[in-house]
Amino acid sequence: MFVYKFKFDGEDKTIALKPFDQLPTGVLRKNRNNDAEGMWAMLEWALTEKDLETFDLLPAKQLEEVLEKWQKDAEVDAPKS
Questions:
Q1: Mean residue pLDDT across the chain
Q2: What is the Cα–Cα distance from 18 to 67, expressed in whole angstroms?
Q3: CA atoms within 13 A on the CB side of 40
């Protein structure tokens, strides 16, 4: 699991994502023509419902950092279209 911590309204928040290297190829295949949809599909696969609710509080400026660190943690890169 990859754990990411952030602050929201002064409170510490934590989300845990399934390991990026375990992402099913079907998630990528089904979204191969739409990068944005693919990103959201990957996150929805990786997070529990509870963590998705917490993730929704994440400041947008931190989204890229989460994606980069999640991939780096698994030592892989998401395929580029």
A1: 93
A2: 12
A3: 4
Domain ranges of the chain: 2-74
Burial zone of 74 (CB within 10 Å; 0-12 exposed, 13-18 middle, 19+ buried): middle
The predicted model gives 43-72 an average pLDDT of 96
Instruction: Pull the structure tokens for residue 62.
Output: 């931190």
Distance from the Cα of residue 44 to its chain's centroid: 8
Give the global pTM: 0.84
Tokens 């030592």 correspond to 75
Is beta strand 2-8 parallel, antiparallel or unpaired with respect to 11-17? antiparallel
